[in-house]
Design a protein that fits this description.
The chain has 295 residues and is of the alpha/beta class. It is built from 13 helices and eight strands. It has an eight-stranded parallel beta barrel, surrounded by six helices. Helix 4 links the parallel strand 4 and strand 5. Helix 9 packs antiparallel against helix 10. The mean pLDDT is 96. Its EC number is 4.3.3.7. Pathway: Amino-acid biosynthesis; L-lysine biosynthesis via DAP pathway; (S)-tetrahydrodipicolinate from L-aspartate: step 3/4. This is 4-hydroxy-tetrahydrodipicolinate synthase.
């Protein structure tokens, strides 16, 4: 992979809140700094893990500005701007550009489930709204609509559509995009970090990286150094924590915030309709985190 528009190791950062539920910009600055120090090349703000459905437009802008001030100009900052409304998404894109984002993460419109031609027109309109590069976000399990491979192939011809966050669990489609386009494909599935990287993806946008950023960076570093056996060991070692955080019936936002709080790191509560993890879940997360950290 020669084109890395946003680096290799990205974290889908949680949005810290204070105990009364308001935006915690100081906490966001601390958490962002820890993630960059842990090896992240960039951060995705206001995404699914960042609870974008329950943060206001003003909060989204304030978060980008605060994190940009905290980490400086080096790391990539992508702002999630996807909504169910093309006009609103385009307005959020322009707002993110003014706030200092380096790129946009744009998910498919949810609920309305537009057909592929309308979906393509939506993405083109958002890409035309600013001068920022765009990472499309294919996560049909949440949006209800897939960005089908022929649609992605056409969108890849747009000069500002440069990347894809791939959460579609379609390895054949992923390889087709890698073979036929110059898109930088980033897996959004923590269990696929190594396998996706090995077939030529640019890197990852991880949720579990909120708590173990250095571990996932070590996976891709080992692979780049030619130590594929070590890369495989590191990926397998993360499986118990990945499973607990991403496949145990709770959203990754909930488990990430529970574990961050247990480690005395900025997180705060989740906003309704999400609910906090139980004490039992949190204890299990801590145990798996400790096992991985000591591996």
């Amino acid at each position: 992979m020669t084109t890395l528009p946003f680096g290799r190791a990205l974290c889908a950062m949680v949005t810290p809140f204070t105990q009364d539920g308001s935006l915690d910009l100081d906490g966001a600055a601390v958490l962002a700094g820890r993630l960059i120090a842990g090896g992240c090349d960039g951060l995705v703000l206001n995404g699914t893990t960042g609870e974008s459905p329950t943060t206001s437009d003003a909060e989204k802008s304030a978060l980008v500005r605060a994190v940009r001030a905290a980490v400086g100009d080096g790391p990539s900052l992508l702002a999630g701007v996807g909504t169910a409304d093309t006009a609103h998404t385009s307005a959020l894109a322009r707002q993110a550009e003014r706030a200092g984002a380096d790129g946009l993460l744009v998910a498919s419109p949810y609920h309305s489930r537009p057909p592929q031609d309308a979906l393509e027109e939506h993405f083109r309109a958002v890409a035309d709204a600013t001068g920022l590069p765009v990472m499309l976000y294919d996560i049909p399990g949440r949006t209800g609509v897939r960005i089908e491979t022929p649609t992605m192939l056409r969108l890849a011809e747009h000069p500002r559509v440069v990347a894809l966050k791939d959460c579609a669990y379609d390895l054949l489609g992923t390889q087709k995009l890698l073979a036929e386009t110059e898109l930088a494909v980033y897996t959004g599935c923590d269990e696929y970090v190594l396998s996706s990287y090995a077939i030529g993806c640019a890197g990852y946008v991880g949720t579990v990286a909120n708590v173990v950023p250095a571990h996932f960076r070590a996976v891709v570093d080992a692979f780049d150094a030619g130590d594929t056996a070590r890369a495989a060991r590191l990926q397998r070692a993360a499986v118990p924590l990945i499973e607990a955080m991403m496949s145990a019936g709770l959203p990754g936002t909930v488990t990430a915030k529970a574990l961050l709080a247990a480690l005395a790191l900025p997180a705060g509560p989740v906003r309704a309709p999400l609910r906090a993890a139980s004490a039992e879940v949190t204890a299990d997360l801590r145990e798996r985190y400790a096992a991985l950290s000591g591996a």
